[in-house]
């Protein structure tokens, strides 16, 4: 996958992710509608490939306005990854030198890999995750819209222990997928399925679309390094 093709795919996927987020705001927040309507328009220009790279620059400016409006990335990790992807893609598009383009786009791929490793490390040093207690509490006490029948999983400690270790093992081992193309593709499929499950079970839909937008970067990075 060439840098141009990978970056273009990431741009489209991220624009679609931002459209989905913006539509949520349009549905519930009247004062912020002009801001998010403008973001949708810029995203449509990105998807259409018109006036590049200026719609990306516009989205970067809008991202600063959103940060100021909500006093930071209000939706946690998904917003941070979205900001990282947006600014990396914007700088990739703006840089005149090929090496600089590779630097910024490769940085996005590296950060995607680290997002899994760091998440796994934070979990494995936590005794509640190692014992399955953390996952049990997610199902038992979480405010996320978990179906009532799924709350019964909190009474299945062996299953939750196995699930906890499966998640931690996958996240910590994720860098090994870079050693071969089939392994990386398989790893990304598993990771996407994990994010999709979280979206379906807990309503964390932003993580799925935002992380998906960064996948072309790590696919390109693997090609570049190996």
- In DSSP terms (H or I, runs of 4 or more residues), the helix count works out at 11
User: Could you state the order of secondary-structure elements as H and E?
Assistant: HHHHHHHHHHH
Determine the N-to-C terminus distance: 13 Å
Radius of gyration: 19 Å
Shape: globular
Q: How is the biggest beta sheet arranged? A: none
Mean pLDDT metric: 91
Number of domains: 1
- Tell me what portion of residues adopts beta-strand conformation: under 5%
SS-based class: mainly alpha
Helix proportion of residues, in percent? Answer: over 70%
Number of strands: 0
Which regions have little confidence, pLDDT < 50, spanning 5+ residues? none
Explain this structure to me?
The protein contains eleven helices and no strands. Helices cover 81% and strands 0% of the residues. 28% of the residues are buried. The chain is globular and about 55 Å long. It has one domain (3-225). The model has no long low-confidence stretch (mean pLDDT 91). It is an all-alpha fold and 226 residues long. The two termini are 13 Å apart. The protein has helices at residues 3-28, 33-48, 54-70, 77-94, 98-124, 127-131, 133-141, 148-151, 157-173, 181-202, 205-225. Helix 1 (3-28) crosses helix 4 and helix 2 packs antiparallel against helix 3.
List keywords for this structure.
226 residues; globular; single chain; 11 helices; mainly alpha
How would you concisely characterize the structure shown here?
The chain has eleven helices and no strands. The protein has helices spanning 3-28, 33-48, 54-70, 77-94, 98-124, 127-131, 133-141, 148-151, 157-173, 181-202, 205-225.
